[in-house]
Structure formats: C-alpha cells, structure tokens
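Anyone opening a protein record will find just a pair of labelled lines. A complete record is shown below as an example:
=====
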Amino acid sequence: EMELFVHGFPSDVAALRFEWAWQHPNSSRCLLAPPTRRPREQPISFALRLLPRLLLAPPWSRLPLRIRWLRPPRPALDLAPPPHVVEEEGAGLPRLKRKKGRSQEVELENSGCGLCGEDQATPLLRCPRPHCKMAAHPLCLARLFLAPEPLQLLPVGGACPRCHTHLLWGDLIRRCRGEAEPEEEWAEPDDIIIPSSAPT
C-alpha cells in the first residue's frame, strides 16, 4: 500500500534526483549527515525519518513541493518539512488541469507590469486574492521577493506588493500556467511514490 507521494518538481530530472537520494541517502552528496537505520526499523519508518531531512536540504529546500498522505491518520515526522511545503491528505494522484479563459480575460484588463510599468510578452503573475489587481512580470516579482535573500536564485515566497498577502512562489507559477488546484481532478503524474513495503 502506498503511504504518500511527493510532487511539484520542476522537471522529471529533479524528481529522479530526489528519488535517488531518498533511496540511497548514504551515497547522496545532498545529505551531509544522513541518519542511520535503527535496529529492527521498518523500511517505511526509515524513509519517513529521512523525508524531512531531504526536503530541508539543498537543492530541494526551496522548491514548491507538496506531500500527499494517502491513508489517514498521517504519521508524525521527526522534523517538520519547510513551511512552504504543502501537506495534503486523500487518495488519488493530482492531474494539473488547464483552466480555460481566466488568464486571457484578466490579461485583457491589465497588460502592464505593476512593478516596472512596462508591457512585455511575458505572462504576468497575479495575486490570487479576488479583489487584488496586482500583476507583475515573473522576473520583477522574483527580484522583489529575493531582496532579503540576494544570494538565492529561486524565491520561496513573499508579500504581494499591493495587498501585502503572503504568497508562495510555486502557487503563483501554477496559477500563471493556468493549472487547476490538485483537488479538482486526479490522474497519474510523473511523481515520486513510496510504498509502505519498500525494500532497503
């Protein structure tokens, strides 16, 4: 039986690298001090102890990943995942469904970036709050979100420059691409699944 899966990777390669590190923690260079398996510890218990350590390690610590627990109640993890990693519950695998019409309609209302004021062909990121009209180029908004962390390349999130709501970067990108929320439809993605009887 499947216990959980992790999804939201930007590419198949990123997902495969995460999966390999999860299966080979002692060989991975991403974990500086991987935990050792306890005597008589079940493979799934060890995998669950390892999961938050992987999510907290570069290069995955800044990715907008999601954990979907398939069987309630969800087990308690030794460490908490990063705060921007969303934990979901429920059986099924998410299919990212394209929403038709919304992005084109909003694009006609306001075609300029609210931060630089320029019109470019780049799709704009928009605040998900219904009454907020913030729209900005991804690069402009990324610069704003990364101002407190100038050495980072990928923002985790930041405050909307108009309504000051905290926004997660991954959610903004998903909305810009017209992808539906995972709860709306389910199908089989290319994500990482770990069975409860995984071998060591």
